[in-house]
Amino acid sequence: MIRKKLLVMVMGFLGYAASVKAQDIQSNTEGFNIGVHAGVGNWSSSYFLNLDELEPIGVGGGLRLGYGLNQRFEVFAQYNAKTFAIKNDWDTYRISSLGAGIRVHFGGTLQRLRPYVEGGVAGVNLLINPVLFNGDLVEYRLKGPSLALGTGVNYFLSPNLALHANATGTFGKFNSFQVNSRGIQDRPDVRTLQFSLGINFFFN
């Protein structure tokens, strides 16, 4: 009888321990976090004919700072930069953006895989040199605001450390267009699309 009671107690303890382990926190998006990423992207505009097709893919990376208000909502700021000076002989061909927004996480702390969607605004800067303009080689310098929309997923290696994959697009119009540092009145449209992989650390 005593042995049976001991066996029941041991089995009960093991079952409780397994239950507690199953309920361990696997992810936590609250509080401050920082991330770095690398990826590829492109840009397009109906204004520039085939200029955006000369170097269709750019490579680069970025830095991201976020603060999780709770497990669902996070505010963030992000900087991205990419170079397109890959195939042809450019002095400079790069695009960068600085933006802020809100990210909505799905799932809960018991899940390692946490998908999300995000939206915000970004300032996009494009610098190309040299460009053939009216028979002369010149520098293009453009900047303007855009709407940014994205989606992705975090995979938590631990509650504080996550790998992530992201796809983001921006849609807007340049409100400043300089040719050799002289402004012109044209306001070209611009769209960007980027795919990135990176790592985030959560200070929670």
From TrEMBL:
Pfam families referenced in this protein's UniProt entry, alphabetically: OMP_b-brl
Secretion signal span: 1-22
InterPro entries in UniProt: Beta-barrel_OMP, OMP/PagP_B-barrel
SUPFAM superfamilies linked: OMPA-like (SSF56925)
Domain of life assignment: Bacteria
Residue ranges of every copy of the Outer membrane protein beta-barrel domain listed in the record: 17-201
Keywords: Signal
Identification of the protein by name: Opacity protein-like surface antigen
